[in-house]
């Protein structure tokens, strides 16, 4: 009887050890998979940065048609919006470290270039889309800021789904020490975060419902 009990105990111990280590291994593999996907998005961001730089030069040299400019700009904006959702999902599932923070700067730079190009195209072509720029704190937001930013992010996501191509939604973190982003903050006198900037002249820092934003998009 004692031998049987020892055998059962030993079997249970081995099984527990195996399941525990299997869980650690599976968690590690999931973490690696998420990091690889984030890195792939960052590589795509580098291509996007180069593309935006080329588009900027093309505006002054190639003189492309406004239909093409608007079409490609809206398409690019939709890609940025979808990538922002994916990045947020992956970053929420991973511990934010120095490497991820550094890589995130590339997206902020890309979105800043896109913001500037969108303004150029709108001025050149008298485009009818609205540029909705979401400026937020990325590094260590306070509990109040974090709660507010999640609310704003969800609200703007619903707004984008509702209005589609009528708005270009550009999220930009303002605290990653990027000179071009700092220039936007200074130019538009962004003091409080988060802030929703609409068409470069309307700043919203307190929003309770979607209608408070919608009235500026009609």
Strand content: 5-15%
**Structural domains: how many:** 1
List segments where confidence is low: pLDDT < 50 over at least 5 consecutive residues. none
Percent range of helical residues = 55-70%
Largest sheet: 4 strands, mixed
Question: Got a strand count?
Answer: 4
Order of helices and strands: HHHEHEHEEH
- Rounded to the nearest angstrom, the radius of gyration is 23 Å
Structural class of the helix and strand makeup?
alpha+beta
Number of helices: 6
CATH class: Alpha Beta
Shape: globular
Order of strands in the sheet with most strands: 2-1-3-4
Provide the residue-averaged pLDDT. 79
Report on the structure:
There is one protein chain. This protein has 218 residues and is of the alpha+beta class. It has one domain (2-214): 3-Layer(aba) Sandwich (Glutaredoxin). It has 6 helices and 4 strands, in the order αααβαβαββα. It has helices at residues 2-61, 66-93, 98-125, 143-163, 179-187, 211-214, and strands at 130-136, 167-173, 195-198, 202-204. Strands 2-1-3-4 form a 4-stranded mixed sheet, sandwiched between helices. Strand 3 (195-198) and strand 4 (202-204) form a beta hairpin. Helix 1 runs antiparallel to helix 2 (66-93) and helix 2 runs antiparallel to helix 3 (98-125). The longest helix is centred in the N-terminal third of the chain and has 60 residues, at 2-61. The mean pLDDT is 79.
């Amino acid at each position: 009887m004692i031998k049987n009990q020892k055998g059962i105990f030993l079997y249970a111990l081995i099984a527990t050890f195996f399941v525990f280590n299997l869980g650690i291994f599976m968690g590690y593999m999931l973490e690696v998979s998420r990091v690889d996907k984030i890195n792939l998005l960052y590589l795509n961001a580098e291509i996007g940065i180069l593309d935006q730089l080329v588009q900027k030069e093309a505006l002054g040299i190639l003189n492309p048609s406004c239909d093409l400019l608007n079409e490609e700009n809206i398409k690019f904006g939709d890609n940025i919006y979808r990538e922002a959702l994916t990045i947020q999902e992956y970053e929420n599932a991973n511990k934010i470290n120095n490497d991820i923070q550094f890589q995130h700067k590339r997206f902020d730079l890309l979105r800043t270039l896109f913001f500037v190009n969108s303004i150029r195209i709108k001025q050149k072509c008298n485009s009818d889309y609205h540029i909705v720029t979401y400026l937020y704190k990325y590094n260590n937001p306070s509990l109040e800021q974090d709660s507010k930013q999640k609310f704003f992010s969800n609200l703007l996501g619903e707004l984008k789904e509702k209005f589609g191509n009528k708005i270009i939604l550009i999220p930009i973190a303002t605290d990653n020490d990027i000179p071009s982003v700092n220039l936007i903050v200074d130019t538009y006198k962004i003091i409080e975060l988060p802030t929703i900037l609409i068409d470069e002249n309307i700043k919203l820092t307190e929003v309770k419902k979607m209608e408070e934003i919608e009235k500026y998009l009609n």
